Amino acid sequence: YELYKVTAFEEEGGAAEDFISHLPITLDSSSSGVQFYACILLTVHDAVLSNLQSEDGQKVANDVYMEIANAVIKKMKQDIIDYEGFEDCDEAEYRKLAQLWLDFGLKRKYVKRPVMTSLYSATLYGITNQIMKDTIIPLRFDVIRGDIDEHPLGDNQTQFQAARYLAQTIWDALHTVLSEAMKAMNVLRQTAEVMA
């Protein structure tokens, strides 16, 4: 029906770009948490990263989730070379966790939810649980169904360590790539704790 109206509008001499449509349009923001903080803090870096603002000559939208995923992959590759330590984990195990994730193939989808929720107050513990629920446990079911021969992230204990390692690595990447937004989230969290 709306197409008929615009066609009639053009036939009456109007230009299609001047036609006012009354179709409801839904919009999806690009990493809204980052956008909120970019607006509140007036941070150009975060505004560009979340597509509120574009850079000169930019042809493709930015992807904050891929930016974080790339930072995580870079950190994992560095962790294999330079052991930086990890709670309850010796050097060999730490390097093994990084290699497990790299061999598994860390993709954008594995960091998206932790990135989204971290700016709405998710904690490191919560991110670890998200990784268990969204990635590790579904892979266990893949093994049970026979879709894969073995869990790519090892036995149950190693899987939990792998989830903790990925959560920490995402957390560190967030504090590097979105440092101002994460500082603001920390201030809001501390304020809420004081007021509770």
Topology:
Layout: H1 2-11, H2 32-41, H3 44-49, H4 64-81, H5 91-104, H6 108-118, H7 124-145, H8 156-177, H9 179-195
Helix pairs in contact: 4-5, 4-6, 4-8, 5-8, 6-7, 6-8, 7-8, 8-9
Specify Rg, calculated over alpha carbons: 22 Å
Give the % helix: 55-70%
Please tally the β strands and state the result.
0
The geometry reads as extended
- Arithmetic mean of pLDDT: 91
Give me the secondary-structure category. mainly alpha
Largest sheet: none
Number of helices: 9
Q: Note poorly predicted spans.
A: none
The arrangement of helices and strands along the chain is HHHHHHHHH
User: Which range does the strand content fall in?
Assistant: under 5%
3D architecture notes:
There is one protein chain. With 196 residues, the protein is mostly helical. It is built from nine helices and no strands. The mean pLDDT is 91.
